[in-house]
Write a structure and sequence with these properties.
5-stranded antiparallel β-sheet
């Protein structure tokens, strides 16, 4: 199947005919823009985000002006797409698709709303909106606007992902690479900012609970067993002590 091959060769694929209406995608985008356009102070002081709003500028929004009904509808739709896609990838490895229904309850998954302000710089400087990284989940589903800027690493070269309003961009996370014994690839990707216009995107992260054990789909295993909480803790420790995420190499059995 095409998405299984793409997950192995690229770590990324785009999905159309995903069942989420363009009206819902556009409605969520409008709510996102509203969220970032209201005063910073009102958002910072409202408390609804439980201190999860950590960075931003003074044009970001108050969640009191945000439609939680739209967000919940959007998140539920993304959860369904994520479960279907994860099920296909799991069955391709000879396992039952109920695996991720058990591990990835919707209460463990989350949305991230991103705004990248325009950044006019000289041609010699290439400003990152998001530095090169891999995702620490099972699957990430992204809906980006038409500005572009997302790039992924393929054969040691950066490849730009062309925007498509009707498509969802899906990438394999570290946990799926570990579970699949390196069959599916969690590849580095980054975002480059635009010099003239702002960029918006919304990412849905398919995650297990912190105590979920991440094993291998077959033996011999490339990685030792670990929990999601242990993995996140190791990443945080590595960033604190070395300044960068090490990720899966920390959990190789050959180490």
């Amino acid at each position: 199947m095409a998405i299984c091959r793409a997950s192995s060769e690229w770590g990324f694929f785009q999905v159309v005919n995903h069942g989420i209406s363009i009206e819902l995608l556009r409605k969520m985008r409008r709510e996102q823009v509203k969220l970032f356009e209201a005063p910073f102070e009102s958002k910072e002081n409202c408390g609804l985000f439980n201190n999860s709003y950590r960075w931003g500028n003074r044009t970001a929004t108050s969640p009191k002006q945000f439609s939680w009904e739209v967000m919940e509808e959007y998140a539920s739709a993304m959860q369904e797409v994520a479960r279907v896609l994860a099920g296909v990838l799991v069955m391709n490895m000879g396992h039952n698709n109920s695996l991720f229904n058990e591990k990835c309850d919707e209460s463990n998954c989350f949305l991230r709303l991103n705004r990248y302000p325009p950044c006019p710089v000289s041609p010699e400087v290439l400003p990152f909106g998001l530095v090169p990284h891999t995702d620490s989940d099972f699957l990430t589903i992204l809906h980006q606007d038409q500005v572009g800027g997302l790039q992924l690493m393929k054969d040691s070269k950066w490849v730009a992902v062309k925007p498509n309003e009707n498509a969802l961009i899906v990438n394999i996370g570290d946990l799926f690479q570990a579970w699949s014994n390196d069959v599916y690839k969690s590849v580095e990707h980054k975002v480059m900012v635009n010099a003239k216009v702002e960029r918006y995107s919304i990412a849905y992260f398919l995650c297990p609970s912190y105590d979920s054990l991440i094993g291998s789909c077959k033996e011999p295993s490339v990685y030792r067993n670990f929990t999601f909480g242990e993995y996140r803790g190791q990443i945080q420790n590595d960033v604190k002590t070395t300044g960068r995420k090490v990720g899966l190499p920390r959990f190789l059995l050959s180490n």
